[in-house]
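Submission sheet (multi-component)
Chains listed below:
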Amino acid sequence: MELFNENNKLASVIHKDHSLLPVINRLGIKLGFGDKTIRNICEEKGIDLNFFVETINVFHYEAYFPEKRLLDFSVSMVIEYLLKTHKYYIEYLIPENDRLIELFLAANPAESAENDLVRRFYTKFKDEFVIHMNFEERVMFPYILELNGAILNPDLRDAFIKKYPGYSIEGYEKEHSNMDDKMDDLKNIIIKYLPPNYDQNRGNAFLFNLFMFDKDLKNHSRIEDHILIPKVKQLEKVLMSHE
Amino acid sequence: MSNIPTKSILVICPSDIVLTGLFEILKGSQAEEIIQLHRGDEIFDYPALAGHFLVIASPEEIEKSSALIRKILSTDGSVQFMNLQLEPVAVNTNQAVNLFDSPALICYKANEIMNSFPANQSKDTNAELTRRETEVLKLLTKGYSNKEIADQLFVSTHTVISHRKNISEKTGIKSASGMTMYAILKKIIDVNDIDTADLI
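Outcome: structure written.
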């Protein structure tokens, strides 16, 4: 597997791995970049070059995850990326998935009991996922940003400690493995166990979208579990040492 | 997600010319993945690698980082090393990639080593569930805990957990609600027998 670097033209990066399209959008880049290299584009748009390169590489190749370097990125940068990812899920990926699964199931009204099961499994998974994202956005991310603020600005420390006595991310931490498992199960059920008389093209369209969702979700979980949470634990230790 | 262990090649060399050259050449080998590192310790950047590995690196690099590479890579597969000889005068052997080897010869040597990787003894994922596993699955779909299932079947909780693991491996389904779906679709249980609002 070849990793990308700052001297690659972004157009050729996308030709090699088009699943990066939503990722570059989140990083603030739209199509129409001509022959510019990653470095040119990042300089032009004021995007952190290292963050850009590492983010696309981690997404591009699952086995690649340079934890030490990733831990160097600022908490606010990571959260901004995660928030944009949530927005993409809520505004596009989930509604698109909803639409495709309905098309798929509607094509085979004879199997209404099976359809109902698949729909219910998917809906439950989706509801859990949306609750999870809401929780992060309303509770966990604000806590992390305030903690980060208290580290950067000593004047804010007392107020922070008063607001969050015994502050610790451990109370907020939620394992992502459960959601990743359900996503795998949904794919497997459709691929391996669905009765054969369904509409192939609609089934494929739904699965394509689901695979995209799956890849994105696993990447997202990895960034939260292995970058964001360890970073927050570091920050908590720093704050504790100042108390 | 497949259970077949992949065969990958890891090339370690500080020179980008050599790395890129070997990468292009080794695309012709049977390796499914080729990873390029400048130094052995960059392996830390790839914590999720799995399967069997052929590592091609200079004798010095192998001496320096083979222990580390084995430690990180050999969790579920084997790791073999092959020397990278970049001195033009080096002795030509089958155990090494030499500077003037043809692409076909390099791939041949790499394939020889990769062929020696233990054959995939993957569990038969198409295997039917055993009678006992089916019983466990039925009880699972009724919402019983491992302990309750163990009591009903007069076995230890440990045995139930091991049955569950086998069910997951055979079906590819991990979550409890996924298993319920599986059981219904495979007609192991009847949809009317369970409370789907609760279990799925």
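Remark: The longest helix of chain B spans residues 59-73.
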